[in-house]
Design brief:
The chain is 2% helix and 46% strand. With 710 residues, the chain is mainly β. It has a five-stranded mixed beta sheet with strand order 1-29-28-27-26, with no helix packed on it. A five-stranded mixed beta sheet has the order 31-37-36-33-34, with no helix packed on it. Strands 41, 42, 43, 44 and 45 form a five-stranded antiparallel beta sheet that branches. The model is unreliable at 1-45, 278-282 and 489-493 (pLDDT under 50).
């Protein structure tokens, strides 16, 4: 059975008369205070023979006979636990431990520091310092690492004398002293954070130096020993960073293939231990042990939260194995295989379980950045993958929530679900939730909801966003979300996800979209057909009538007569422009044609984008054979004002299409696409200069492919 001694031991000012300078230095900085842990009760059989350990306890240092840890217990946050289960609460002040030894240091008042060997009955050692503005940085054996207005120094008790030693080879302005890293050394970084120094305690000299590869972020996690220096360095490249290992004797360094930033390493004589935050076999985040001499990385434990250098080549690790949380002593056998021994238990991890959920049944996404939150609360931190399936189309959307707290929250918005807006309609959802370290069974949840999307101009697939229509060379008609066209650039290496509206559209020689959710096409016999949209598809076509072979260009989308419906325009082979007003009736979709005027043979491209300049009606854009673009302002009665020149150079584009009201000014933007480029032209609201400078959308022809764009 475990033995828990609850008596407090105050380390008082008894003086050890002769403490030699041993050349060992170590200090464990005070750990961050944690909330009080719940009492450990009803330990499973596997943990009955070890002492309980608070779940929120923090390891400070590991020695030969026990270890120092910290909690947030008022009055006595520090305790020493022997490997035999004996617990000694330590009263008053801050405590530091010497890595790999049983030496503790208590920071007292009036510049008094008390040392005690917890592995023996020797009297404590008291060191009285007389420095000005001094700060205790750490301890190694019986040597204190200090800092005052003159810089860092070492402090020893030799007989009755207190001896101060300066450090050779350390530049002025050194900072960020890390103690302990090993019982014989400690480290420091330069004032600019780009140089790392290994300092030997016995000689008080810098024995090795490393330089960061990153001039901004510098070093992250650091450890050192007599023979090696280890650090994490953020590399300037896009691959993040790596752990580096420097051999002090040879001066050569190499990358250690495990561990991540913020994962403080630990060094023994033969191994470097890293909390494996990146990769590893199977589930969990095991402790990675890499041989200093090079070779295969070994793994131990399912989860490693903290690791400290222990005595005799061992490591002390707070973590979990086979769902048993606690403190483990990890050793490596002669065969190179690691073993873990539970020395203190925090109890068995419960299986992941749902506590509550808040999942909406119906919600509306209207504005571009509207969002809806889905919330699940579990009994412990969890990660989750949410899969949404649109019932009508089968299209899947996925979102992921990284582990952070028992509350798992996923936000669905107009802009960031697979980089496109959600379709309107019914959905099913499935959440696959796992523990933070994925070492236990997960939880599968499912349900359904409905998204309501208010009608949006030129939205052909009911996802609340205007679309550009493209018929590819194979005859497939696709709706490209303009949010995607605006955000997904070729260099992002993300494919677009258009909505396929139908196939077989090669039967048409001319096409246009005169009004919302409506597409018309003229076949090779001169017959005009109309397709009405529903959901994410177009319904079977309805015949409008014959004789349309007289036209060489058609365009639609502008409301020319102010009745709220988009209309159709067509130019015949004689250069006459004709106006077809929409009726809203699918069986007779257009009124008889009205002649607008002649001379339109000078134009080789027409686009009716809608209202782009704030006049009374929908407008018309026309490009002449010299590449000059002209604006015809709609009067609202089916006619236009005199043309206004927008500018030249538009021959570089093969298609012009409405781009929706991207800047939310009530006016329709323009999308221009050419053989090697695409541009978004926001509207300005000015009649004489209706477009702001174009925003390049990068090689959109290579993104959406060739074909007819409208």
């Amino acid at each position: 059975m475990s033995r828990v001694r609850t008596t407090r031991l105050g380390l008082t000012a008894a003086v050890l008369t002769a403490a030699a300078v041993t050349g060992t230095l170590l200090i464990a900085p005070a750990a961050v205070a944690a909330p009080p842990a719940a009492p450990v009760t009803a330990l499973p059989a596997a943990a009955q023979d070890v002492a309980p350990f608070p779940k929120e306890g923090k390891l400070v240092s590991a020695g030969k006979t026990g270890f120092l840890y910290r909690t947030d217990v008022a009055g006595a946050p520090f305790s020493w636990m022997g490997y035999d289960g004996t617990v000694t609460p330590l009263a008053g002040g801050r405590y530091f431990g010497s890595a790999g030894s049983d030496m503790l240091l208590q920071e007292g008042t009036d510049d008094t520091f008390t040392l005690r060997d917890m592995g023996s009955d020797a009297d404590p050692v008291v060191i009285k310092s007389s420095g000005t503005y001094q700060v205790l940085l750490g301890v190694s054996g019986t040597t204190l690492v200090m800092h005052d207005e003159k810089g860092p120094y070492l402090l020893d008790k030799v007989g009755d004398d207190v001896v101060r030693r300066g450090i050779t080879g350390l530049p002025a302005g050194a900072k960020s002293f890390k103690v302990p890293v090993d019982k014989e050394v400690f480290t420091s970084t330069s004032s600019d954070g780009q140089h790392l120094y290994l300092i030997d305690v016995a000689t008080a000299k810098v024995t090795a130096t490393a330089t960061s590869d990153n001039s901004v972020l510098g070093f992250d996690a650091i450890a050192g020993s007599k023979t090696h220096l280890a650090w994490y360095d953020w590399t300037p490249a896009d691959d993040g960073g790596h752990f580096h290992l420097l051999d002090v004797a040879t001066g050569t360094s190499r990358i250690v293939p495990e561990g991540g930033s913020g994962s403080d390493p630990a060094l023994s004589k033969d191994w470097i231990a890293l909390r494996n935050t990146r990769t590893g076999p199977g589930k969990g985040n095991p402790l990675a042990l890499h041989p200093l001499a090079g070779g295969e990385t070994r793994y131990v434990l399912d989860r490693a939260d903290e690791v400290k250098t222990g005595a005799d080549g061992s490591f002390l690790v707070k973590g979990a194995l086979a769902r048993e949380e606690g403190v483990y002593r990890v050793t490596v056998g002669a065969d190179g295989e690691p073993a873990a021994e539970l020395v203190a238990s925090s109890g068995r991890l419960p299986d992941l379980a749902l506590v509550s959920q808040e999942v909406p049944q119906t919600f509306t996404l209207d504005e571009p950045y509207d969002s809806q939150e889905f919330r699940w609360t579990f009994n412990q931190p969890a990660a989750g993958t949410l899969t949404l399936v649109h019932t009508a189309t089968g299209r899947e959307y996925t979102r992921y929530s990284a582990p952070s707290s028992p509350l798992l929250s996923i936000l669905l918005s107009n802009t960031d679900v697979n980089n496109m807006g959600l379709y309107s309609g019914a959905y099913t959802w499935k959440l696959s939730a796992t523990e933070t370290y994925d070492v236990g069974p997960g939880v599968e949840l499912s349900g359904s909801f409905t998204v309501n999307r208010p009608a949006a101009a030129r939205d052909h697939d009911e996802n609340g966003v205007a679309d550009v229509l493209v018929r590819d060379p194979e005859g497939t008609l696709k709706a490209y979300d303009t949010n995607q066209l605006q955000r997904i650039y070729e260099e992002w290496n993300r494919p677009l996800e258009p909505t396929v509206l139908g196939t077989g559209w090669n039967t048409y020689t001319l096409m246009a979209s005169p009004s919302e959710r409506t597409v018309v096409g003229r076949d090779r016999d001169g017959v005009l057909w109309i397709h009405k949209g529903e959901g994410q598809k177009l319904l079977p076509r309805t015949k409008v009538g014959g004789g349309w072979q007289v036209y060489n260009k058609i365009t639609g989308g502008s409301d020319l007569n102010g009745d709220g419906r988009g209309d159709l325009l067509a130019t015949d082979t004689n250069g006459v422009l004709w106006f077809y007003a929409s009726t809203g009736d699918a069986t007779t979709p257009f009124k008889p044609r009205v002649q607008i005027g002649g001379g339109w043979q000078q134009y080789n491209l027409l686009t009716a984008p809608g209202n782009i300049a704030g006049a009374s009606g929908g407008d018309l854009l026309a490009r002449d054979t010299a590449g000059v673009l002209w604006l015809y302002l709609g009067k609202g009665d089916g006619t236009f004002t005199a043309r206004r020149q927008i500018g030249g150079g538009w021959q570089q584009f093969t298609d012009l299409a409405p781009f929706g009201d991207k800047n939310k000014d009530g006016l329709v933007d323009l999308y221009a696409i050419g053989a090697t480029t695409g541009r978004h032209y926001p509207t300005s609201g000015l009649v004489d200069a209706p477009f702001k400078p174009g925003v390049t959308l990068n090689h959109q022809r290579t993104v959406i492919g060739s074909g007819t764009v409208f």
